Amino acid sequence: MNRLKIISVYICFWITTFSAQGQQLPVYNQFFLNPSLYNPSFVGAHGYTELYINQRYQWVGIEGAPVTTNINLQVPINSKLALGVFMISDKSGLLSTYQGDIGLSYRVRLGQASNLTFGLAAGMERNTIDQSVIDQAIVNVRGTQITGQFGLNLEHKNLVIGFALPRLFESELLDEFDLSQTELALLKTTFSSISYLFQVGSQFSVKPAVFYLTDLNTVDQFGGLASVYYKNLFWLGGGYKQEIGPNAFLGFNIKEFIQVGYDYEFASGLAEQIGNGSHELHLRIRLGKTNKRERKPEPEVATASAEPVAEETKPVVEEPKVEVKEEVKEEVKEVPAAVIINTDVKEEPPVTDAITTIESDRSGDMPPGYYIVVGAFRDRNNAQKYLDKIAAAGYSGSIGAHNQTGYNYVYLNYMASLNEAKARRDEVRKISRFEFPKTWVLEIK
After folding, report:
1. φ, ψ for residue 266 (rounded to 5)?
2. For 419, phi and psi rounded to 5 degrees?
3. What are the backbone dihedrals phi and psi of residue 383, each rounded to the nearest 5 degrees, phi first?
4. Beta partners for 265?
5. Which of 113, 155, 160 is nearest to 389 (CA)?
6. What is the pTM of this model?
7. Mean pLDDT by 10 residues, the chain (445 residues)
8. Strand partners, 96
9. Which residues contact 33 (CB under 8 A, 6 or more apart)?
């Protein structure tokens, strides 16, 4: 008997050992890049139409070792509803499983910086076994069964908490074709996760996450990981899973439309004796430019009686915050033109040297200096709503009032010199996760 037959017999024995139940959940170390792999409530979370491909090669070097491929398309319909289509192929030795699911997620706004989202997916799963190696008398694999998933997640600013039931139904794997034997398996398999994004300066951010998996077919598993991001360009990090061992990963974005990730799981335990580690590849392709989950603030456009609106906006500064958070939870396509004082410009950013100078207003709350402005409002409440929106996306800002002009300015940074202000203005304009194309510099003398 060759090595493939030995591994295949072992896998079949492994199947029967776990009371002839369905297969255990596929392993995805890079689920933090696409949480919908375990939790359907994250379908369409970014607000864009996106195609995800995840492929995992486990225990490289062993014939018949598991190979899992997950392809899913996520299409946000509006700010609340999103559709997902999942196709999964999982091959372990002689056993092959093919699964297709359709899912929906529904988001409920709890506040300017909080969302509660629910998700449900259902489909069919098909199991086959290579009878040319294993005689049918040894094992008779059940052909088709119903699949289902349920999940929810709560977002509050940079905190995300998720809970999912990845297998709503459980049915015997070793049996004749008989859908009537499928039964509900609530709480038998669960996946819980929590993550938080910390901003470290204006260039870096750190995102730790922990998760806990309970699976009827294997031991419960606790794990954690941490990612370090540089702007929105690339990231690297590592994690550890109980009973499995450590893993390391890295990835990068190409102009927000293509995302590539790679993970290596170090071999440990039995796998270390018979093979090498595991490789996992991640690819995301953004297919549209419109963010369907962007929430528009309630802006107030400057009137003709105000100061010239060509290039104006103002910041707030009660000790201006220089820090800008560039990694966000919910992506926002662009700042509505109505929010920005630069209403004379449509698609392109305003003049390259967009700088406005006004005299200091001693009765206001903006001391002399240079401000990186992204919006101006006559109504203080509207300025606060817009500030809450960008804060929910992960950016630090402030509001500054100038009584002579009558505007409340929303700004991201306060600079001491004009050259620094110009450089920061150009940098902010290029932020792709939350576009500020009409950012300008306000000088208070």
Report:
1. -70, 140
2. -65, -40
3. -65, -40
4. 247, 278
5. 113
6. 0.63
7. 49 44 74 94 93 92 86 94 95 87 95 90 88 56 82 94 90 49 67 93 89 82 94 91 91 92 83 75 91 57 36 40 42 37 35 63 73 88 85 81 84 85 84 70 86
8. 91, 128
9. 251, 259, 261, 282, 284
